[in-house]
């Protein structure tokens, strides 16, 4: 998203202001569910800083507020200063429905920005829930405050992805857990585990409605983990002849699932 070029107003800057896509802002609140046009909404500190100081938005700029619960409103910045950023709400926005396929992604935790990429792109592709998983060959172990901070960071990554892609419903990002615990909780009609060298995903006659998708770490799953998944009736399959990175696999799998059973057309 481009920033406004400051200076004297002319036809070019006016045209830019009119044509710019409104900035979408996620606000974790129940207030939008009962909101109406004309109400004044004051942004929380973090969002206010981002809007006013980072994105350099100004009074009169169009924005959209959404609560991650399916409510979204048009709005206009009415106050932008160091202490406060407020939005005058306009009309509610008719939000795009969620995919008819609900996917719960179990993603092995990986180093660096790989986990961020996996979460970001999966949210863009319509994932419903994500659980970061501790696996035997995973090289990341989080405990206590460090785990809490990382979890909050992943929540922010998901919210930012929703802002960018236009989703009004925020996917659930669960706290990290052991792979074995996650497997025991699965009751989706379709359960898929990606593993190189296995057969490709076959078409199901009917839309399963819900699916669990399991992606491993950089070192892959151990034989014991594969056996655990098979015992929970996971289909163990691959996405072709090439080995995909742990952050690439969910992108490819989510695209395929949404194309076959969801809303990617």
CATH class of the largest domain: Alpha Beta
Name the CATH superfamily assignment of the largest domain: SPOUT methyltransferase, trefoil knot domain
Q: Please give the oligomerization state of what you see.
A: single chain
Give a count of the beta strands, DSSP E runs of length 2 or more: 12
Ranges where pLDDT stays below 50 over 5 or more residues in a row are 1-18
Q: Report the mean per-residue pLDDT as an integer.
A: 90
Question: H/E order of the elements?
Answer: HEEHEEEEHEHEEHEEHEH
The main pleated sheet reads as: 7 strands, parallel
**Count of helical stretches:** 7
Catalytic activity: uridine(1498) in 16S rRNA + S-adenosyl-L-methionine = N(3)-methyluridine(1498) in 16S rRNA + S-adenosyl-L-homocysteine + H(+)
Organism: Zymobacter palmae
Domain Ribosomal RNA small subunit methyltransferase E methyltransferase: 98-258
Domain Ribosomal RNA small subunit methyltransferase E PUA-like: 43-87
Question: How would you describe what is shown here?
Answer:
By secondary structure, the chain is an alpha/beta fold. The protein has helices spanning 11-19, 45-54, 114-124, 144-165, 179-184, 223-231, 249-261, and strands spanning 23-26, 40-42, 62-66, 72-80, 85-92, 102-108, 129-134, 172-173, 177-178, 190-194, 210-215, 235-237. The chain has two domains: 11-92, Ribosomal Protein L25, Chain P; 102-261, SPOUT methyltransferase, trefoil knot domain (Alpha/beta knot), CATH 3.40.1280. Helices cover 30% and strands 23% of the residues. The strands form two sheets. Strands 6, 7, 8, 9, 10, 11 and 12 form a seven-stranded parallel β-sheet that branches. Strands 1-3-4-5-2 form a five-stranded mixed β-sheet. Helix 4 (144-165) links the parallel strand 7 and strand 8 (172-173). Helix 3 runs parallel beside helix 4 (144-165). The longest helix has 22 residues, at 144-165.
């Amino acid at each position: 998203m481009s920033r406004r070029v400051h200076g004297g107003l002319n036809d070019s800057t006016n045209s830019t202001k009119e044509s710019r896509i409104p900035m979408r802002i996620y606000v974790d609140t129940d207030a939008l569910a009962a909101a109406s046009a004309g109400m004044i909404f004051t942004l929380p500190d973090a969002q206010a800083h981002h809007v006013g100081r980072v994105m350099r938005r100004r009074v009169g700029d169009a924005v959209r507020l959404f609560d991650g619960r399916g409510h979204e409103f048009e709005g206009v910045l009415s106050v932008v200063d160091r202490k406060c950023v407020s939005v005058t709400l306009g009309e509610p926005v008719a939000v795009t429905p969620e995919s008819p396929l609900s996917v719960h992604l179990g993603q092995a935790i990986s180093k660096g920005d790989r986990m961020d990429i996996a979460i970001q792109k999966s949210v863009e592709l319509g994932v419903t829930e994500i659980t970061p998983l501790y696996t035997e060959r995973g090289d990341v172990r989080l405990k206590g405050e460090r785990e809490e901070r990382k979890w909050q960071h992943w929540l922010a990554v998901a919210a930012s992805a929703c802002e960018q892609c236009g989703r009004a419903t925020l996917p659930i990002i669960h706290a990290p857990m052991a792979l074995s615990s996650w497997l025991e909780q699965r009751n989706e009609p379709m359960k898929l585990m990606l593993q190189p060298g296995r057969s490709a995903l076959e078409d199901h006659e009917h839309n399963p409605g819900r699916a669990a998708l399991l992606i491993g770490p950089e070192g892959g799953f151990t034989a014991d983990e594969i056996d655990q998944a098979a015992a929970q009736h996971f289909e163990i399959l691959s996405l072709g002849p090439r080995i995909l990175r742990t952050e690439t696999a969910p992108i490819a799998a989510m695209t395929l699932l949404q194309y076959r059973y969801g809303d990617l057309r």
